[in-house]
Amino acid sequence: MNSQGYFSFDTYSISDDRKSLYFDYSHILPDGNKIPFKEKVIFPYAISTSISSVLLNQILISLHLAIGISYWKLYCPSHIQIRGYQLDSFQAHFWNTVYTKGLGEFFFKNKINFHGLIDFPYSEKIVITNDVVSTGFIPVNNKQNYLLGIGGGKDSIVALEMLKQAKKDTTGFILYHKNEDIKIKKEVLGVMGINSLIVEREIDKKLFELNKSHKVYNGHVPITAIYSFVGILLALIMGYSFVIIPNGKSSNIGNLCYLGEIINHQWSKSEEFEDLLRKYLDHSSLGRIAYSSILRHMNELEITKEFIKHKKYFNVFSSCNKNFRIYKTHKTIANNKELRWCGKCPKCAFVFTMLSAYLSGGEVEDIFKKNLYKDPSLIILYKDLLGVGDLKPFDCVGTPDEVRTAFYMAYKRNEYKDDVIMNMFIKEVLPNMK
């Protein structure tokens, strides 16, 4: 693999029934061969023709660029072409940042030097102002209605219950791939008792085929950035005033330093990305739709403390990423029911600890169907979560300080004193806590 070829953002289009969007890309390899890609995004309702075409194009351009990150990273060419539209310098800088910081983990794991690698082309002649869409724009309605991203875990549940308490008119939305099982997300929505909008992605099959070939780069992409732009487009076409992607402040903390930069698995969930996106929306005439996270002021312990007030979700929610893989390989049957937690990944170990800080051992075990503190195979993972191992796990988990505090709270209740994980905490972590 090398960077002598180039990547092209080719075209985007709307289907005749205006329910589907098509995004086209291509890699031109160093030998001149072309690999085209097409992604389809299917919306539950048709996109109205009354929406300003200029405004609609701004968000479609944004979604074209956001989705393209999954295809660009296959070969990571330094040369990028954009066909059919141009960016101004502000927009180009935004996408340089999103690709560079959003792919930080990917660059680290693939040992790629990202400095100067991504350079979106732009034109000094392009000037985008709010005046561009002042004529013929049908504004977002004046109702205080909210569109909330639903992930199936505790964050979206806490956000929804906070919005309910504030008597906000809220609809949930889900973005999923056609091969992804969204049973858990739908069950959470059912308990929430709110309306929902479901958007489907059809990722080009060649992407998966190339990944399996091991002849291309593979790894984590900033999926929350894609999710966010889908939410903004939904808000535009369905008339919502606010888009909420519920991220807490713990997502601001990175995992390690690589080539002089902090690498953060959760960068597209961070406050930095949120602020950049709001500025981008304002600049691109899309600031009429407010984008934020209602949980930004809360850490993981505070979010968990709110979550446990809503026991009706205990048997339906899950944060285990193995439930949401596009091609799921993990399936465990217990009591004729599929488990919602694998009990082996960083997310499971982290959420178990957060809940153990507030709930009885019996309540936590009823959720996970086992006591993770009894599993010696998790010692290394828990050391990483506690900050005494090699590396903070590349997953959406809280900070080592939060994990240590949660362990201490569980330790004080004296419920897990005979468990191997708690004994590790008592011997190796507790003596050094202030």
Automatic annotation (TrEMBL):
Bilayer-crossing regions: 225-245
Residue span(s) of domain MurL C-terminal: 316-429
Domain MurL N-terminal: 6-293
GO molecular function annotation: racemase and epimerase activity, acting on amino acids and derivatives
Gene Ontology CC annotations of this record: cytoplasm
Chemical reaction(s) catalysed: UDP-N-acetyl-alpha-D-muramoyl-L-alanyl-L-glutamate + ATP + H2O = UDP-N-acetyl-alpha-D-muramoyl-L-alanyl-D-glutamate + AMP + diphosphate + H(+)
Pfam families assigned: MurL_epimerase_C (PF26298), MurL_N (PF26299)
EC number(s) per entry: 5.1.1.23
Top-level EC class: isomerase
Pathway: Cell wall biogenesis; peptidoglycan biosynthesis
Keyword Cell cycle: yes
Biological process terms in GO annotation: cell division; cell wall organization; peptidoglycan biosynthetic process; regulation of cell shape
Family from the record: Belongs to the MurL family.
HAMAP family the UniProt entry points to: MurL
Protein name listed in UniProt: UDP-N-acetyl-alpha-D-muramoyl-L-alanyl-L-glutamate epimerase
Lineage, opening ranks: Bacteria, Candidatus Roizmaniibacteriota
